[in-house]
Amino acid sequence: MKISVVIPAYNEERAIAASLTALMAQDHPDFEVILVDNASTDRTASVAASIPGVTVVSESRKGTMWACERGRSAATGELVVRMDADCLPDPRWLARGAAHFSDPSVVAATGPYDYYDASPVFRAATLIFQKIFYRWSNWAAQRARKGAVMIGGNSFMRASALAAAGGFNTDYVFYGDDTDTAKRMAGQGWVVFDPRLVIRSSARRFKAQGVLDLSRKYLVHFMKVIFSKKPLR
Fold this sequence. Notes:
Largest sheet: 7 strands, mixed
Number of strands: 9
Distance between the termini: 25 Å
CATH class: Alpha Beta
Order of helices and strands: EHEHEHEHEEHEHHEEHH
Shape: globular
Radius of gyration: 16 Å
CATH architecture: Alpha-Beta Complex
């Protein structure tokens, strides 16, 4: 299956070269990389354009979902994959995610973040938490028809199902966007949470905002979207 990797990026010139270099080393035979420059004021676009094989497009409306939707419109793959601009995928990442779609009932697959630049305790604790709690929560939410759990920067989606779900919801600027996408994808089929589909990501947001404050924001917005009265499509 051809994969389109969509990377929204705002002022990511320091991180983007390493992320794109790791991504271009994937062993999956057929994929394209679409970097969406989301009104950056630094050299994000030029740095990305210097990496062979990367397509750079622009979205002037700020917001992760605006950037992702712009990337989706340029994508030509059967699978649309979201990756953050600070992630470092290992070479088997795309192949592992794509393998889930041999099952026609699967419309999306996701897995944990490994916060590679965090302290050893935080790194281990968050990885274990995601592998156990997120996997169970994903199963429970779908069985209750409340939605699903997806890690935004580590998510694989069947392009046809994403289109049927209405694409990325640009009403969301940041918080709650991945939960909204997961909920709408769950209306199209099954969302897999694979604890072995790990991608390394930076813990910089936790460092900048504080672990407790950022965790609270993620939880509040997750609960708000999951328990909203908006039905699954």
